[in-house]
């Protein structure tokens, strides 16, 4: 054996011998070896949709890294100063120390503008990735038992991400962010009875006060990031504890995970993906301008930026307020601003409450209390998928309504007509989206059943003795049949018993009747998957070629539109 082919165990090398003592000391007291050996070989499944959560994680890391850089030069003070810097149009203009330091970072600190823009783009990507990740979890049923707590943690991360993004958006104290703060001040004031007291407590006096920027700064760099880090850690620990969900497929069951181990495969891929995310945000920060604060100027409470819009993830809350009619009431010499409180405070609260309780609502409807580690294809839960699309549609209408003035200007439309379209559409469009999505899901279910029972189109045309032409179908491979039939069968619904064995009225009969009605609605029109007998019968039928001289081999998967054999 040559010298290059010899292998020396690491514990026998010089470095290994020197490290053996300290490592052994730690292992004797902390038991690190057993924990590391178990978790570093943890298996994770492979699918592109699982990267959505990783994008959110790595963009959060980018936010932390760039945020540390920005803290060295940003000054969170509302003290009025006179500007004398590189941006000549503002020389001699009075502004807050916070806005001046933002201008200094943008124009005088080497690489400051690049880091600012990377930070802002990473924030937008963080929220977008979280929303996409939550949608993936929702549409695939990944929140079902035992992951309800992890879903609640995700809802908490989403809500805190919105607050963190808004806090960072407000820190430069420019005219645009100040307009956004004024909007939030109106939301706080609209809370009945305690609104004005809360405003004085948060802003340190009459808006804008002198304390809001320092307070937002401490929340932005310390309080909220600490909570986010704790929730992210808990989210990851529960993911490892419960094991990662996986898509149905050959060899995949509710009791195993098919994929790659943490080391070396998954760790290498995750590390590489971090650099992809960092590079992508750096590219956007270098080439795409975002939040040019020098265009807006310093904040002045007597001014409002024309066409001002919040960051995209907060646009739906402003849209809800713009759609709401001007309803106000006066009780006991207090004005109750329902036109702000109901859509803004009530809308935001309702969104997170509905998201939080949905797993428990669905569990009550279905009565399914089993553990689930296999994901559902969205088409196999048509009502849930339709509800999700309806919610997305309502969100989209509210988001578009947040820019009704811009839309009216750009498309030369009457703003009042446009607002009424959004008001009606907020209730009508989601219903239409629900019905269309449900029918699409049921149609896809029927297509899957047809592929299982009638096979796939091979592209081979046969002519009968009578002169008719038909295309031969071949049975799906067993692996694809398994994938298409891995979901549960539709349960048999039974009417709730109105009396017990002794003829006495059953307790909770009203609740059970309600549950039965909702359950019928949930499973109505859902197509059940073919039985094993149906599949075997279809295979026998498809395997009989009526003496055709050309037999279809196992490798044949049909032909493309150009007649070239393809992989099915």
TrEMBL record:
Entry-linked InterPro entries: Cyt_b/b6_N, Cytb/b6-like_sf, Di-haem_cyt_TM
Gene Ontology CC terms: plasma membrane
EC number annotated for this UniProt entry: 7.1.1.8
Recorded superkingdom: Bacteria
Keyword Lipoprotein set for record: no
UniProt entry keywords in alphabetical sequence: Cell membrane, Electron transport, Heme, Iron, Membrane, Metal-binding, Respiratory chain, Translocase, Transmembrane, Transmembrane helix, Transport
Compositional bias (Basic and acidic residues): 540-551
GO biological process, alphabetically ordered: respiratory electron transport chain
Cytochrome b/b6 N-terminal region profile domain span: 22-248
Gene3D superfamilies according to UniProt: Cytochrome Bc1 Complex, Chain C
Topology relative to the membrane: Multi-pass membrane protein
Pfam family, one: Cytochrom_B_N_2
Reaction(s) catalysed (UniProt annotation): a quinol + 2 Fe(III)-[cytochrome c](out) = a quinone + 2 Fe(II)-[cytochrome c](out) + 2 H(+)(out)
Transmembrane segments: 48-74, 118-139, 151-171, 217-242, 263-290, 340-361, 381-403, 415-436
Cofactor field: heme
Compartments where found: Cell membrane
Catalytic EC class: translocase
One GO MF term: quinol-cytochrome-c reductase activity
UniProt-annotated stretches for the region Disordered: 540-568
PANTHER family linked to this entry: CYTOCHROME B (PTHR19271)
Name of the featured protein: Cytochrome bc1 complex cytochrome b subunit
């Amino acid at each position: 054996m040559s010298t290059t082919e010899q292998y020396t165990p690491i514990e026998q090398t010089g470095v290994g011998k020197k490290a053996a003592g300290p490592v052994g000391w730690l292992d004797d007291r902390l038991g690190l070896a057993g924990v590391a050996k178990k978790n570093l070989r943890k298996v994770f499944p492979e699918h592109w949709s699982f990267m959505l959560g990783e994008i959110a994680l790595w963009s959060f890391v980018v936010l932390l890294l760039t945020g540390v850089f920005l803290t060295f030069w940003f000054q969170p003070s509302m003290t009025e100063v006179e500007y004398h810097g590189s941006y000549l149009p503002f020389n001699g203009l009075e502004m807050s120390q916070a806005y001046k330091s933002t201008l200094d970072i943008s124009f005088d600190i080497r690489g400051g503008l690049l880091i600012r823009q990377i930070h802002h783009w990473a924030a937008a990507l963080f929220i977008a990735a979280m929303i996409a990740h939550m949608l993936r979890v929702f549409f695939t049923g990944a929140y079902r038992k035992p992951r309800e707590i992890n879903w609640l943690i995700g809802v908490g991360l989403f809500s805190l991400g919105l607050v963190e993004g808004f806090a960072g958006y407000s820190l430069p104290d420019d005219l645009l962010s100040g307009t956004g703060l004024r909007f939030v001040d109106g939301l706080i004031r609209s809370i009945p009875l305690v609104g004005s007291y809360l405003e004085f407590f948060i802003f340190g006096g009459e808006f804008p006060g002198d304390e809001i920027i320092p307070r937002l700064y401490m929340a932005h760099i310390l309080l909220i990031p600490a909570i986010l880090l704790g929730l992210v850690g808990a989210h990851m620990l529960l993911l490892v504890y419960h094991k990662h969900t996986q898509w149905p497929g050959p060899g995949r069951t509710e009791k195993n995970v098919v994929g790659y181990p943490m080391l070396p495969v998954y760790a290498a891929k995750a590390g590489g993906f971090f650099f992809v995310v960092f590079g992508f945000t750096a590219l956007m920060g270098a080439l795409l301008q975002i939040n040019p604060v020098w265009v807006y100027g310093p904040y002045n409470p007597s001014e409002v930026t024309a066409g001002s819009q919040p960051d995209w993830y907060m646009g739906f809350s402003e849209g809800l307020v713009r759609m709401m009619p001007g309803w106000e009431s006066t009780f006991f010499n207090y004005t109750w601003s329902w036109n702000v409180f109901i859509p803004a405070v009530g809308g935001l609260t309702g969104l997170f409450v509905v998201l939080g309780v949905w797993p428990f609502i669905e569990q009550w409807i279905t009565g399914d209390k089993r553990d689930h580690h296999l994901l559902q294809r969205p088409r196999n839960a048509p009502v849930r998928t339709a509800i999700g699309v309806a919610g997305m549609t309502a969100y989209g209408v509210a988001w578009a309504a947040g820019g009704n003035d811009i839309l009216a200007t750009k498309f030369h439309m009457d703003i009042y007509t446009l607002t009424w379209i959004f008001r009606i559409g907020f209730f009508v469009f989601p219903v239409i989206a629900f019905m269309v999505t449900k029918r699409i899901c049921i149609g896809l279910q029927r297509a899957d059943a047809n592929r299982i029972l009638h096979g796939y189109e091979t592209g081979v045309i046969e002519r009968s003795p009578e002169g008719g032409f038909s295309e031969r179908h071949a049975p799906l491979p067993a692996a694809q049949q398994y994938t298409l039939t891995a979901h549960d069968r539709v349960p048999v619904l039974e009417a709730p018993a109105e009396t017990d064995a002794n003829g006495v009225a059953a307790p909770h009969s009203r609740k059970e009747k309600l549950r039965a009605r909702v359950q019928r609605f949930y499973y109505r029109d859902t197509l059940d998957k073919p039985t094993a007998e149906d599949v075997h019968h279809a295979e026998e039928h498809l395997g009989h070629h009526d003496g055709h001289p050309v037999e279809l081999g196992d490798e044949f998967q049909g032909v493309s539109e150009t007649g070239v054999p393809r992989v099915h």
